[in-house]
Amino acid sequence: MAEVARMPELEQALTEVAAEMAERTDRGDVATYIPQLGKVDPKKFGIAAVTNDGRVLTAGDADEPFSIQSISKVFTLTLALGNVGDALWQRVGREPSGNPFNSIVQLEHENGIPRNPFINAGAIVISDILLAGHQPREAIGEILRFIQFLADDETIVIDREVAASERATGFRNLALANYMKSFGNLNHPPDLALGVYFHHCAIAMSCRQLALAGRFLANGGKNPATGHSVVSAERARRIGAMMLTCGHYDGSGDFAFRVGIPGKSGVGGGILAIVPGVASLAVWSPGLNANGNSRLGSIALERLAKMMNWSVFAP
Ligand code: DON
């Protein structure tokens, strides 16, 4: 796994995967429950790989920004762990939920403690943690600047129309936040935690920017371009473990089985995936499967991992 990616082979694999995906008609369904996301062209497909030795390879619509949605939860988890350390795990679990991303059912049995930081309830608690000592706009700014710093790209922005569309239709998230507040697992008014949550979900990035932002996770917590440490090697491994076990909601087991590397999806159709020791990958195809994960994005990663012999389980 620690072997450096062979470049000509990777470049060709990306091109082949993008060509195959462009031809396919079984693209899944674009999310419409956030009306602004329903306007995206389902024919889009982009893929990017950033290797630990500094190469950036792309194919398809890899420079077109899309709504990263729940992929942002990887970055908010990283920031919150930096702020409060392992105390975070007293308020959020680390088990796969086996339920849809927006499910409320486990919260009652589990006293308002969400199963993991990637389901909506868990990410709302993480937003609440990031609010400590801040106004919502400061917490949102901190998240955005962190992602800009990771990608080394200050042009990354929040799509305000998507954020407004989420707020206007986010009744389920409102229920989750109020319910957790009733158990004492939110320190701030639900509305404020949700303001942070809706805005970080509405960050827009291209595959290239996303793969760049994820590279510290493929390189033991260090940005391979600068050598600067973002998180400890242990923390990078643990974030990867959360992605592998919980990154695709009730489709996490299937993704681990088919693709074999950690990944985090978003309902905008993006997936950030990590090949530890080798590369950070981002893929985007807006049509979703039944679990709300990118249909062609996960198939593309499955193909690519097979072609490159990438798996965290490979000898
Ligand atoms: O809470 C929501 O509905 C969205 N802002 C994020 C959900 C999401 O991306 C789930 N991922 N597949």
UniProtKB/TrEMBL annotation:
Keywords: Acetylation, Hydrolase. Pfam families: Glutaminase. Its EC number is 3.5.1.2. Substrate binds at S70, N120, E166, N173, Y197, Y249, V267. It catalyses: L-glutamine + H2O = L-glutamate + NH4(+). GO terms for molecular function: glutaminase activity. The keyword Glycoprotein does not apply. It comes from the Bacteria. GO terms for biological process: glutamate biosynthetic process; L-glutamine catabolic process. Belongs to the glutaminase family. HAMAP family: Glutaminase (MF_00313). PANTHER family: GLUTAMINASE. Homotetramer. This is Glutaminase. It comes from Mesorhizobium mediterraneum. The gene is glsA.
